[in-house]
Amino acid sequence: MQARATSRVTGTDADGREHTVHVTGAGARRRLECESCDWNRAAQFLPWLKAEEHLAEAHAAATGTPPADPAPGSPSGT
After folding, report:
1. Which of 16, 29, 70, 72 could form a cystine bridge with 25, CB 3.0-4.6 A?
2. Which of 18, 8, 21 lies closest to 61 in space, CA to CA?
3. Eight-class DSSP state of 71
4. Left (φ > 0), alpha (ψ -120 to 50) or beta: where does 27 sit?
5. Angle at CA 17, nearest 5°, toward 49 and 52?
6. Residue 78 has pLDDT above 80, yes or no
């Protein structure tokens, strides 16, 4: 029997409330479940990205993943 992996993605909305999406399963059989709104779905590819998208779209919750900084010495685009 294969072990069932569990992880979570959390985000905080503008009011300071924390929202959590649990990622369960392994391989192609992953399941996403939101604690805040009972949203759930199967996710074969990129489950953590899909969890972050749900938090951003449904709850306006930032996951705390910092935006990529340009490498030192590279043009900043300004």
Report:
1. 29
2. 18
3. P
4. left
5. 5
6. no
Gap between the Cα atoms of 25 and 20, Å rounded: 16
- pLDDT per position as a tens digit, 29-59: 899 999 999 899 999 899 999 999 999 999 9
The pair of three-digit structure tokens given for residue 78, joined into one six-digit string: 């300004």
3-state secondary structure of 20: strand
Max CA distance (Å), the chain: 55
Contacts of 26 (CB under 8 A, 6+ apart): 2, 3, 4, 5
